[in-house]
UniProtKB/TrEMBL annotation:
Organism placement in taxonomy: Bacteria, Pseudomonadati, Pseudomonadota, Alphaproteobacteria, Hyphomicrobiales
Signal peptide per UniProt: none
Protein family per UniProt: Belongs to the PEP-utilizing enzyme family.
Included range, full protein: 405 to 730 of 734
Protein's name according to its UniProt entry: phosphoenolpyruvate--protein phosphotransferase
Compartments it resides in: Cytoplasm
Gene: ptsP
Top-level taxon of the source organism: Bacteria
Organism: Roseitalea porphyridii
Length: 326
């Protein structure tokens, strides 16, 4: 198998019926970077900047942040990199940073962009480091845990102030700045058109979106396999998102763990999500599945089941059977 995947490394992912799929990798530390070449990823779809903060003993200094971002961009060369601004709080704890009073529900608490907007100094330092590191090339910035669109505007104002500041002091700036939002809080599912119109790209954080839609803690083993990521309600949410992205011409990626599981990846592509970001080790298996797949037939299979009231674990089983027998 490993040898088979190595052979696929330099092939683009195109399904048997001609659907092109972009396969990106998730990363967060310097040690992940060699995987860019080894996995054949077309870029980094999710760079989790909080990992540098989580392994440090104190807040990393601006220079250390800039150095990491520069190394990432150098390793990526012409390939795109999407940097997510700090996503701390919830399941991502910084031992040296005590989040407000103890929270009863940290996943629903003071985290990610909420914390960034309340402590803009952290965001400003990080954005400045990113802008400097990306001088002369494109910078893609992505905001985690967006719940309402006003948060995007507030973050954008902070980011643009840093752009102005750097240009006033004669620093080189990125050639282009693209600002995206993660869709991982269900409120946005009911504001999809305005979301798609407000940003340059959207990335579905399916780990959190699934956790919040199902009220099921993503880290709790007792309920780990209980709900199906290919259940009709979740698939309808993903399909509506893909359709809204299409209406607005807004690039859409999905960067949660399900992107790296072949059966689920095929379902996502069939629903119209044709850019997937996953752990590097998953790229080979997902690419192998796509190359063999008839996406059009899978789309019909899923659509028919969504219309006829399939029950929760049906669709997963049906796709698996389809893949095994074709
Ligand atoms: C997600 O929530 O799906 C995601 C990609 O982000 P994280 O797993 O880092 O929360
Ligand atoms: Mg998340």
């Amino acid at each position: 198998r490993q040898a088979e995947y190595r052979e696929l490394r330099d092939r683009v992912a195109v399904s048997a019926d001609g659907q092109r799929v972009t396969l990106l990798m998730n990363a967060g530390l310097l040690v992940d970077l060699p995987q860019l070449d080894q996995s054949g990823a077309e870029g980094i779809g999710l760079f989790r900047t909080e990992l540098q903060f989580m392994i440090a003993a104190t807040f990393p200094r601006a220079e250390a942040q800039e150095r990491l971002y520069r190394s990432v961009l150098e390793a990526a060369g012409d390939r795109p990199v999407t940097f997510r601004t700090l996503d701390i709080g919830g399941d991502k704890v910084l031992p040296y940073f005590r989040n407000a009073p103890d929270e009863e529900n940290p996943a629903l608490g003071w985290r990610a962009v909420r914390l960034a907007l309340d402590r803009p100094g952290l965001l400003r330092t990080q954005v400045r480091a990113l802008l400097k590191a990306a001088s002369g090339r494109q910078l893609r910035l992505m905001l985690p845990m967006i719940t309402e669109l006003a948060e995007i505007d507030q973050a954008r104002r902070i980011i643009m102030r840093e752009v102005k500041h750097l240009s006033r002091f004669g620093h080189g700036l990125p050639l282009a700045l693209r600002l995206g939002a993660m869709l991982e809080v269900p409120s946005l599912l009911f504001d999809l058109d305005r979301l798609m119109a407000s940003v340059d790209f959207v990335s579905i954080g399916s780990n959190d979106l699934f956790q919040f839609m199902h009220a099921a803690d993503r880290g709790n083993a007792l309920i780990g396999g209980r709900f199906d990521t290919l259940s009709p309600p979740f698939l309808r949410a993903l399909r509506a998102t893909a359709q809204a992205a299409e209406r607005h011409g807004t690039p859409l990626t999905l960067c949660g763990e399900m992107a790296g599981r072949p059966i689920e990846a095929l379902a996502l592509v069939a629903l119209g999500i044709t850019s997937l970001s996953m752990s590097p080790a998953a790229i080979g298996p997902v690419k192998a599945a796509i190359l063999k797949a008839d996406i059009g037939a899978l789309r019909s299979l899923i659509t028919a089941r969504l219309e006829t009231g399939a029950t929760d674990h049906d669709i997963h089983a049906a796709i698996r059977e389809f893949v095994d027998t074709n």
